Amino acid sequence: MSCVPLLLLSGVAAAGEQRATPFDWSGLYLGGHVGYSRGNDDATYFIPGAQPANHNFGTIIGGAHAGYNVVLPSRILIGIEADATFPNFLETDDILVRRPTPQGIVEEKFGFVSTVRGRVGLVRNDWLLYATAGYAWSQARFIETPGVIKDEDKVLRLRSGFAAGGGVERALTPEWSARAEYLYTSFAKAGADLPSGTRIESTTDLHQLRVGLTYHFGHSASGTPLHTSMASPLGYDQWNVHGQMTVIGQGYQSFRSPYQGQQSLSGFSQFKNTGTATAYVGVRLWEGGEAYVNPELMQGFGLSDVTGVAGFPNGEAQKSNFPVPRLNISRVFLRHTFGFGGGQETFEDGANQLAGKQDISRLTITAGKFSVTDYFDNNAYAHDPRTNFMNWTMMCCAAYDWVMDKLAWTWGAMADFNQKDWAYRAGYFLLPEHSNSNFFEKRFPERGHFVNEIELRYGLAGQSGKLRLLGWVQQGNSGSYAEALAQPATTANYPDITLTRRTRSNYGVTANLEHTITSDLGVFARAGWNPGQVEMMGWTDVHRSYSAGASLRGTAWQRPDDKIGVGGVINALSSVGQRYFAAGGLGILIGDGALNYREEKILETYYSYALSRWSWVTFDYQYVANPGYNADRGPVSIYAGRLHMEF
Question: Can you list the pairs that 460-463 forms with residues at least 24 positions away whose Cβ atoms lie under 8 Å?
Fold first, then answer.
């Protein structure tokens, strides 16, 4: 859901005419919030020799809220509100208390905090000052590792409590308001008896400082569209809000699997689902300067915990598992554009894009947290798993070691120099501390990822196309396949590539083509290569990759918003990479413990059916031959359904 600091929005308020009538605070509303939560957990362990544990904790939080208001003639507001709030995605950000025991480690985590509260406030034109109180509940998760029954024994409890606080809210437009609030929650004692015999009981208090945005239904002035300029404290020419939600369910039947390793795609049938909800909030800070923030809630599991196939079949599956939603501020960045005169082009209002005109000849500087592929290796027909192909190796050239944390994001800066028929981009991005890590190296310029891309735009037989040529080089803490293989066979976890990690370089190249055949039909192709001597840092285990396909809109059968896509991918390993995985090595996604090497081949086709101008349902099929490059396993047919909504 959406959120942005109140002071930031107020600070860029347009100097437009104020409304002649006060904002109408009555009626139904829906919004989102982010903030910071800090609290205390007082836990008692009922085992011999254990001492009570008192732990202070803190985390970034985010969630959604909804409610209904009634404004009395005296300008007193009475309302009811419900909300749900979730912790940040990092592994330790949901831990309330953690303690060693004779059996292992016992932790208490929280999955979410929810409240139902009454609100009483005072309305003064575009401002609302309110107090709130009510019932609260939370999910407590008591976990012991290693477990007696499983690797991780878990007991879930719902705990009750109360919430109280207050806040201030400011109307921004006839539909939108921004808020800042404080909320205190206190939860009664909850406990669990773990299979090992350990018992834990605890009480928890939380303090939340939150900011958010709220949409008020039925308040549009004379049917004015959502994203247009209007006389208001903050005109839509100065800011915008967009959002998306995507839910994917994916599964397959049992397939041939004579053996399995630590990171194999399970040979047994399975079905998994993932979900994301994202807000895109943008603000124009000055002429040419813009700021964006994208809070995102995510939940779910990928097939086999996102392992077993180098070309993984669900681009929404993160390399982490979230049984309940978790927050990630996926993007937060600044952008400044320098125009050099001449002709201009118009940019429509959209996600992370404010409406307006810009010089065609321009230089755009972007810095902050975002995805490398927001700007590099784009392709109109194969790039976004929320709207077209779902497979990872259709999103981006698989042999490009797209640097990221486990969720696809990194910190960096890039420059884009645009001309009418071509563009040149260059960027520097932080590398993970080691392969597949959520934490980044900060030793600049000793370590980092450098990428360059030139985009050539052309016309052919009355149709347009783009050719992108990308080169990258990086230096970071990575392991060597050859050195891992050279370890003594008696080495624990042989070949253990983590023991060979030191500062090393890697590099590669990619070619990316998109071409329009007709107004409805387009084709694409990609090819990429890297030497394949060291472990991949962020993306997936591929050293050569080739893909091609086509996308067709449904105009011919009177469904112009529908799409059909068909594409294929061939992924390959270097010779030393083949030997490493055959010896039982592990990568980011693959590791069967043995390897009868063949190229991994994937066919994907989908049909996207438009339910409305803002929602689509998609049916997707993928055929994977030699999953994880192993001819002893598979093939496997993977079926998926996707619901995508956006505004």
Answer: 460/515, 463/515, 463/516, 463/517, 463/518
- Omega prior to 635 cis, within 30 of 0: yes
Retrieve residue 495's tokens: 């070949």
Which residues, including other chains, have CB under 8 Å from residue 223's CB and lie 6 or more apart?
Answer: none
Distance CA 296, CA 408 (A): 13
Confidence grade of residue 303 (pLDDT, cut at 50, 70, 90)? very high
**Fold observed for domain 360-646:** Porin (2.40.160)
Note if the bond before 385 is cis, omega within 30 degrees: no
Evaluate whether 221 touches 230 at the Cβ level (below 8 Å): yes
CB 538 within 8 A of CB 402: yes
Domain ranges of the chain: 6-222, 360-646
Sequence-distant (6+) residues with CB within 8 A of 584 are 261, 494, 495, 591, 593, 594
What pTM was computed for the model?
0.90
What gap in Å lies between CA 359 and CA 428, rounded to an integer?
Answer: 25
Q: What are the tokens at 497? A: 């590539």
Mean pLDDT of the chain: 91
State the Cα–Cα distance between residues 27 and 244, nearest whole angstrom: 24
The CATH number of 6-222 is 2.40.160.20
Q: d(Cα 155, Cα 91) in Å, to the nearest integer?
A: 18
User: Rounded distance, CA 624 to CA 635, Å?
Assistant: 6
Average confidence (pLDDT) over 384-400: 95
Q: Do domains 6-222 and 360-646 have the same CATH topology?
A: yes
Residue 646, beta-bridge partner list: 244
Backbone angles phi, psi at 503, to 5 degrees: -70, 120
Q: Taking CA 512 as the corner, what is the angle to CA 337 and CA 446, rounded to the nearest 5 degrees?
A: 65
The pair of three-digit structure tokens given for residue 135, joined into one six-digit string: 């019932």
Alpha-carbon span 481 to 484, nearest angstrom: 5
CB–CB of 289/335 below 8 Å?
Answer: yes
